Amino acid sequence: MQILSDHKMFEGHQRIYLHESEACRTEMRFGLYVPPDVDAATAPILIWLSGLTCTEQNFITKAGAQRKAAELGMILVAPDTSPRGDAVPDAPDAAYDLGLGAGFYVDATQKPWDQHYRMEHYIARELPALLAQELGLGSAQEGSGKMGIAGHSMGGHGALVLHFRHPDLFKTVSAFAPIVAPTMVPWGEKAFTAYLGADREKWRAYDACALVGTYKSTAHILIDQGLADDFLDSQLQPHLFEQACAEAGQALTLRRLDGYDHSYYFIASFIDDHLIHNARGLTGATG
Ligand SMILES: N[C@@H](CCC(=O)N[C@@H](CSC=O)C(=O)NCC(=O)O)C(=O)O
Protein backbone atom coordinates (compact mmCIF):
# COMPACT_ATOMS: atom_id res chain seq x y z
CA MET A 1 0.00 0.00 0.00
CA GLN A 2 1.15 3.48 -0.82
CA ILE A 3 0.25 6.78 0.88
CA LEU A 4 -0.58 9.28 -1.88
CA SER A 5 -1.25 12.23 0.40
CA ASP A 6 -1.17 13.04 4.09
CA HIS A 7 -2.56 16.21 5.68
CA LYS A 8 -2.69 17.06 9.35
CA MET A 9 -6.29 17.89 10.27
CA PHE A 10 -7.81 18.58 13.71
CA GLU A 11 -4.58 17.18 15.20
CA GLY A 12 -5.18 13.88 13.37
CA HIS A 13 -4.31 12.86 9.82
CA GLN A 14 -6.30 12.71 6.57
CA ARG A 15 -4.56 10.34 4.18
CA ILE A 16 -5.25 8.81 0.77
CA TYR A 17 -4.04 5.25 0.21
CA LEU A 18 -3.49 3.47 -3.11
CA HIS A 19 -3.32 -0.31 -3.31
CA GLU A 20 -3.63 -3.20 -5.72
CA SER A 21 -7.07 -4.76 -5.30
CA GLU A 22 -7.56 -8.49 -5.72
CA ALA A 23 -11.35 -8.07 -5.70
CA CYS A 24 -11.48 -5.37 -8.40
CA ARG A 25 -8.38 -6.46 -10.33
CA THR A 26 -7.12 -2.89 -10.50
CA GLU A 27 -5.65 -0.24 -8.24
CA MET A 28 -8.08 1.25 -5.73
CA ARG A 29 -7.89 4.36 -3.55
CA PHE A 30 -9.47 5.15 -0.22
CA GLY A 31 -9.41 8.04 2.21
CA LEU A 32 -8.55 7.41 5.85
CA TYR A 33 -8.98 9.91 8.65
CA VAL A 34 -7.22 8.96 11.87
CA PRO A 35 -8.07 11.17 14.87
CA PRO A 36 -5.36 12.25 17.31
CA ASP A 37 -4.27 9.94 20.10
CA VAL A 38 -6.42 6.96 19.14
CA ASP A 39 -5.48 3.37 19.82
CA ALA A 40 -5.56 1.89 16.30
CA ALA A 41 -6.31 -1.55 17.71
CA THR A 42 -9.56 -0.52 19.39
CA ALA A 43 -10.83 2.77 17.92
CA PRO A 44 -14.28 2.58 16.28
CA ILE A 45 -14.42 2.82 12.49
CA LEU A 46 -17.06 4.32 10.22
CA ILE A 47 -16.98 3.31 6.56
CA TRP A 48 -18.54 5.98 4.29
CA LEU A 49 -19.93 4.99 0.89
CA SER A 50 -20.34 7.85 -1.56
CA GLY A 51 -22.85 8.26 -4.37
CA LEU A 52 -22.90 8.38 -8.15
CA THR A 53 -20.01 10.26 -9.81
CA CYS A 54 -17.99 10.37 -6.58
CA THR A 55 -14.44 9.28 -5.85
CA GLU A 56 -12.75 8.94 -2.47
CA GLN A 57 -12.41 12.75 -2.54
CA ASN A 58 -16.01 13.98 -2.27
CA PHE A 59 -16.67 12.95 1.30
CA ILE A 60 -13.31 13.95 2.70
CA THR A 61 -13.35 17.41 1.10
CA LYS A 62 -17.06 18.33 1.32
CA ALA A 63 -18.79 16.64 4.26
CA GLY A 64 -16.78 18.24 7.07
CA ALA A 65 -16.84 15.03 9.08
CA GLN A 66 -13.31 15.12 10.44
CA ARG A 67 -13.90 17.65 13.26
CA LYS A 68 -16.53 15.48 14.97
CA ALA A 69 -14.57 12.29 14.19
CA ALA A 70 -11.57 13.81 15.98
CA GLU A 71 -13.75 14.61 19.01
CA LEU A 72 -15.27 11.12 19.05
CA GLY A 73 -12.00 9.29 18.35
CA MET A 74 -13.68 7.66 15.35
CA ILE A 75 -11.66 6.53 12.31
CA LEU A 76 -13.27 7.38 8.93
CA VAL A 77 -12.73 5.31 5.80
CA ALA A 78 -13.95 6.65 2.44
CA PRO A 79 -13.44 4.26 -0.49
CA ASP A 80 -13.94 4.99 -4.18
CA THR A 81 -17.32 4.15 -5.74
CA SER A 82 -16.12 1.82 -8.50
CA PRO A 83 -13.03 0.24 -9.95
CA ARG A 84 -11.10 2.51 -12.33
CA GLY A 85 -8.29 2.25 -14.85
CA ASP A 86 -7.68 1.61 -18.55
CA ALA A 87 -8.79 -2.03 -18.33
CA VAL A 88 -12.03 -1.27 -16.50
CA PRO A 89 -15.14 -1.03 -18.70
CA ASP A 90 -17.37 2.03 -18.55
CA ALA A 91 -20.91 2.63 -19.83
CA PRO A 92 -20.85 2.86 -23.65
CA ASP A 93 -22.10 6.45 -23.51
CA ALA A 94 -20.02 7.27 -20.40
CA ALA A 95 -23.31 7.80 -18.55
CA TYR A 96 -22.86 9.00 -14.97
CA ASP A 97 -25.16 6.29 -13.53
CA LEU A 98 -23.42 3.16 -14.84
CA GLY A 99 -19.82 1.99 -14.91
CA LEU A 100 -17.09 4.29 -13.61
CA GLY A 101 -18.25 6.07 -10.45
CA ALA A 102 -21.37 3.89 -10.28
CA GLY A 103 -20.41 0.49 -8.88
CA PHE A 104 -23.59 0.21 -6.75
CA TYR A 105 -21.73 -1.89 -4.16
CA VAL A 106 -22.70 -5.19 -5.81
CA ASP A 107 -20.64 -8.07 -7.19
CA ALA A 108 -21.47 -8.02 -10.91
CA THR A 109 -22.27 -11.37 -12.50
CA GLN A 110 -22.66 -10.17 -16.11
CA LYS A 111 -20.06 -9.50 -18.78
CA PRO A 112 -18.16 -7.24 -19.19
CA TRP A 113 -18.72 -5.97 -15.65
CA ASP A 114 -17.98 -9.18 -13.74
CA GLN A 115 -14.20 -8.91 -14.16
CA HIS A 116 -13.76 -5.71 -12.12
CA TYR A 117 -17.06 -4.56 -10.64
CA ARG A 118 -16.91 -6.56 -7.39
CA MET A 119 -17.60 -3.76 -4.97
CA GLU A 120 -19.39 -5.82 -2.32
CA HIS A 121 -16.39 -8.15 -2.07
CA TYR A 122 -14.10 -5.12 -1.99
CA ILE A 123 -15.97 -3.20 0.74
CA ALA A 124 -17.01 -6.15 2.92
CA ARG A 125 -13.98 -8.43 2.57
CA GLU A 126 -10.84 -6.97 1.04
CA LEU A 127 -10.91 -3.49 2.57
CA PRO A 128 -11.59 -4.64 6.17
CA ALA A 129 -8.78 -7.21 5.86
CA LEU A 130 -6.39 -4.52 4.59
CA LEU A 131 -7.37 -2.13 7.37
CA ALA A 132 -6.86 -4.80 10.02
CA GLN A 133 -3.76 -6.52 8.69
CA GLU A 134 -1.81 -3.71 7.04
CA LEU A 135 -2.86 -0.73 9.16
CA GLY A 136 -3.50 -2.47 12.47
CA LEU A 137 -7.09 -1.24 12.77
CA GLY A 138 -8.48 -3.95 15.03
CA SER A 139 -12.12 -2.84 14.80
CA ALA A 140 -12.16 -3.73 11.09
CA GLN A 141 -12.24 -7.42 12.04
CA GLU A 142 -15.58 -9.20 11.77
CA GLY A 143 -17.26 -9.54 15.14
CA SER A 144 -15.41 -6.60 16.74
CA GLY A 145 -18.74 -4.81 17.13
CA LYS A 146 -16.93 -1.51 16.54
CA MET A 147 -17.32 -0.84 12.83
CA GLY A 148 -20.31 0.92 11.27
CA ILE A 149 -21.26 1.93 7.76
CA ALA A 150 -22.95 5.03 6.34
CA GLY A 151 -23.43 6.59 2.94
CA HIS A 152 -25.26 8.88 0.56
CA SER A 153 -27.71 8.06 -2.24
CA MET A 154 -26.13 5.12 -4.13
CA GLY A 155 -23.82 4.90 -1.10
CA GLY A 156 -26.82 4.99 1.25
CA HIS A 157 -28.18 2.00 -0.64
CA GLY A 158 -24.76 0.36 -0.27
CA ALA A 159 -24.62 1.07 3.46
CA LEU A 160 -28.09 -0.38 4.16
CA VAL A 161 -27.59 -3.43 1.96
CA LEU A 162 -24.08 -4.23 3.22
CA HIS A 163 -25.26 -3.82 6.82
CA PHE A 164 -28.07 -6.32 6.24
CA ARG A 165 -25.82 -8.72 4.34
CA HIS A 166 -22.90 -8.45 6.79
CA PRO A 167 -24.43 -7.63 10.20
CA ASP A 168 -21.47 -9.04 12.14
CA LEU A 169 -19.06 -6.80 10.22
CA PHE A 170 -21.03 -3.54 10.09
CA LYS A 171 -22.81 -3.25 13.42
CA THR A 172 -24.36 0.20 12.93
CA VAL A 173 -25.74 1.98 9.88
CA SER A 174 -27.03 5.36 8.79
CA ALA A 175 -27.74 7.01 5.45
CA PHE A 176 -28.45 10.28 3.69
CA ALA A 177 -31.06 10.17 0.91
CA PRO A 178 -30.50 6.47 0.18
CA ILE A 179 -31.82 4.58 -2.83
CA VAL A 180 -33.89 2.24 -0.64
CA ALA A 181 -35.64 0.27 -3.37
CA PRO A 182 -33.21 -0.01 -6.32
CA THR A 183 -35.27 -2.79 -7.91
CA MET A 184 -38.12 -0.31 -8.38
CA VAL A 185 -36.46 2.94 -9.55
CA PRO A 186 -34.63 3.92 -12.76
CA TRP A 187 -31.10 4.22 -11.32
CA GLY A 188 -31.30 0.77 -9.78
CA GLU A 189 -33.09 -0.90 -12.69
CA LYS A 190 -30.43 0.32 -15.13
CA ALA A 191 -27.48 -0.71 -12.95
CA PHE A 192 -28.90 -4.06 -11.83
CA THR A 193 -29.86 -5.04 -15.39
CA ALA A 194 -26.26 -4.43 -16.46
CA TYR A 195 -24.46 -5.86 -13.42
CA LEU A 196 -26.83 -8.67 -12.34
CA GLY A 197 -28.75 -9.55 -15.50
CA ALA A 198 -32.40 -9.56 -16.50
CA ASP A 199 -33.71 -11.85 -13.74
CA ARG A 200 -35.30 -9.40 -11.30
CA GLU A 201 -35.56 -12.05 -8.60
CA LYS A 202 -31.75 -11.96 -8.27
CA TRP A 203 -31.85 -8.19 -7.72
CA ARG A 204 -33.66 -8.60 -4.42
CA ALA A 205 -30.41 -9.67 -2.73
CA TYR A 206 -29.28 -6.05 -3.09
CA ASP A 207 -32.52 -4.22 -2.28
CA ALA A 208 -32.80 -2.78 1.25
CA CYS A 209 -36.61 -2.97 1.21
CA ALA A 210 -36.47 -6.65 0.30
CA LEU A 211 -33.70 -7.41 2.81
CA VAL A 212 -35.15 -5.75 5.89
CA GLY A 213 -36.59 -8.47 8.08
CA THR A 214 -34.86 -11.20 6.07
CA TYR A 215 -31.40 -10.49 7.46
CA LYS A 216 -30.93 -10.12 11.19
CA SER A 217 -30.24 -6.53 12.28
CA THR A 218 -30.14 -5.30 15.84
CA ALA A 219 -29.24 -1.78 14.73
CA HIS A 220 -31.39 1.29 15.05
CA ILE A 221 -31.17 2.74 11.55
CA LEU A 222 -30.93 6.52 11.01
CA ILE A 223 -31.93 8.01 7.64
CA ASP A 224 -31.97 11.71 6.78
CA GLN A 225 -33.91 12.83 3.70
CA GLY A 226 -34.12 16.38 2.38
CA LEU A 227 -37.58 17.41 1.19
CA ALA A 228 -36.16 19.67 -1.57
CA ASP A 229 -34.23 16.75 -3.06
CA ASP A 230 -34.83 16.60 -6.84
CA PHE A 231 -34.50 12.79 -6.76
CA LEU A 232 -36.94 12.21 -3.88
CA ASP A 233 -39.95 10.95 -5.85
CA SER A 234 -38.20 9.45 -8.87
CA GLN A 235 -35.26 7.56 -7.32
CA LEU A 236 -35.36 7.54 -3.52
CA GLN A 237 -38.89 7.00 -2.14
CA PRO A 238 -37.93 6.59 1.53
CA HIS A 239 -41.55 5.85 2.47
CA LEU A 240 -41.07 2.37 0.95
CA PHE A 241 -38.31 1.59 3.46
CA GLU A 242 -40.30 3.17 6.28
CA GLN A 243 -43.19 0.83 5.44
CA ALA A 244 -40.91 -2.23 5.12
CA CYS A 245 -39.26 -1.47 8.48
CA ALA A 246 -42.64 -1.06 10.16
CA GLU A 247 -43.79 -4.42 8.79
CA ALA A 248 -40.55 -6.15 9.80
CA GLY A 249 -40.26 -4.57 13.25
CA GLN A 250 -36.97 -2.92 12.27
CA ALA A 251 -36.03 0.13 14.37
CA LEU A 252 -35.76 3.20 12.13
CA THR A 253 -35.58 6.93 12.57
CA LEU A 254 -36.40 8.65 9.25
CA ARG A 255 -36.01 12.41 9.46
CA ARG A 256 -37.64 14.45 6.69
CA LEU A 257 -35.76 17.72 6.57
CA ASP A 258 -37.46 20.75 5.11
CA GLY A 259 -35.65 22.65 2.35
CA TYR A 260 -32.57 20.40 2.03
CA ASP A 261 -31.54 19.06 -1.38
CA HIS A 262 -29.42 16.09 -2.50
CA SER A 263 -26.05 17.81 -2.19
CA TYR A 264 -23.10 17.68 0.17
CA TYR A 265 -24.42 20.97 1.69
CA PHE A 266 -27.18 18.77 3.11
CA ILE A 267 -24.74 16.09 4.24
CA ALA A 268 -22.45 18.65 5.90
CA SER A 269 -25.45 20.04 7.81
CA PHE A 270 -26.22 16.72 9.55
CA ILE A 271 -23.05 14.63 9.34
CA ASP A 272 -22.28 15.20 13.04
CA ASP A 273 -25.58 13.55 13.97
CA HIS A 274 -24.63 10.51 11.90
CA LEU A 275 -21.19 10.22 13.47
CA ILE A 276 -22.73 10.47 16.94
CA HIS A 277 -25.45 7.95 16.03
CA ASN A 278 -22.88 5.40 14.87
CA ALA A 279 -20.46 6.11 17.75
CA ARG A 280 -23.27 5.55 20.22
CA GLY A 281 -24.04 2.16 18.69
CA LEU A 282 -20.38 1.17 18.53
CA THR A 283 -18.99 2.46 21.83
CA GLY A 284 -21.81 4.06 23.79
CA ALA A 285 -20.23 7.51 23.21
CA THR A 286 -22.71 10.37 23.31
CA GLY A 287 -20.68 13.00 21.41
N1 LIG B 1 -24.78 14.39 -12.40
C1 LIG B 1 -26.03 13.85 -12.09
C2 LIG B 1 -26.23 13.57 -10.60
C3 LIG B 1 -24.99 13.22 -9.87
C4 LIG B 1 -25.16 13.41 -8.39
O1 LIG B 1 -26.01 14.13 -7.91
N2 LIG B 1 -24.35 12.70 -7.62
C5 LIG B 1 -24.47 12.76 -6.20
C6 LIG B 1 -24.86 11.40 -5.72
S1 LIG B 1 -26.38 10.91 -6.51
C7 LIG B 1 -26.63 9.29 -6.03
O2 LIG B 1 -25.86 8.47 -5.84
C8 LIG B 1 -23.15 13.20 -5.60
O3 LIG B 1 -22.82 12.85 -4.50
N3 LIG B 1 -22.40 14.01 -6.35
C9 LIG B 1 -21.10 14.46 -5.95
C10 LIG B 1 -21.04 15.75 -5.22
O4 LIG B 1 -19.94 16.11 -4.76
O5 LIG B 1 -22.06 16.44 -5.05
C11 LIG B 1 -27.11 14.81 -12.54
O6 LIG B 1 -26.70 15.91 -12.86
O7 LIG B 1 -28.27 14.44 -12.52
Walkthrough of the structure:
- The chain has 287 residues and is α/β, with parallel strands linked by helices.
- The protein has a single domain (2-282), classed as Rossmann fold.
- The chain is built from ten helices and nine strands.
- It has helices at residues 57-62, 66-72, 119-135, 154-165, 186-196, 200-203, 208-211, 232-236, 238-248, 264-283; strands spanning 2-9, 12-21, 26-34, 45-49, 75-79, 147-152, 172-176, 221-226, 252-257.
- A nine-stranded mixed β-sheet has the order 1-2-3-5-4-6-7-8-9, sandwiched between helices.
- A hairpin with a 2-residue loop joins strand 1 (2-9) and strand 2 (12-21).
- The radius of gyration is 17 Å and the shape is globular.
- The two termini are 32 Å apart.
- The model has no long low-confidence stretch (mean pLDDT 97).
- Ligand LAXINWYW is lined by residues 51-54, 58, 62, 96, 152-154, 262-264.
- Serine hydrolase involved in the detoxification of formaldehyde.
**CATH fold label:** Rossmann fold
CATH architecture: 3-Layer(aba) Sandwich
Helix content: 25-40%
The H-and-E topology, N to C, reads as EEEEHHEHEHEHHHEHHEH
Q: Give a quick account of the main beta sheet: strands, pairing sense, barrel closure.
A: 9 strands, mixed
Distance between the termini: 32 Å
Shape: globular
Low-confidence stretches: none
- Give a count of the beta strands, DSSP E runs of length 2 or more: 9
Q: What integer is the average pLDDT?
A: 97
The CATH superfamily appears as: Alpha/Beta hydrolase fold, catalytic domain
Which CATH C-level class is it?
Alpha Beta
With helices defined by DSSP (H or I, 4 residues minimum), what is the helix count? Answer: 10
Ligands bound to this protein structure: the ligand N[C@@H](CCC(=O)N[C@@H](CSC=O)C(=O)NCC(=O)O)C(=O)O
Rg over C-alpha atoms, rounded to the nearest angstrom: 17 Å
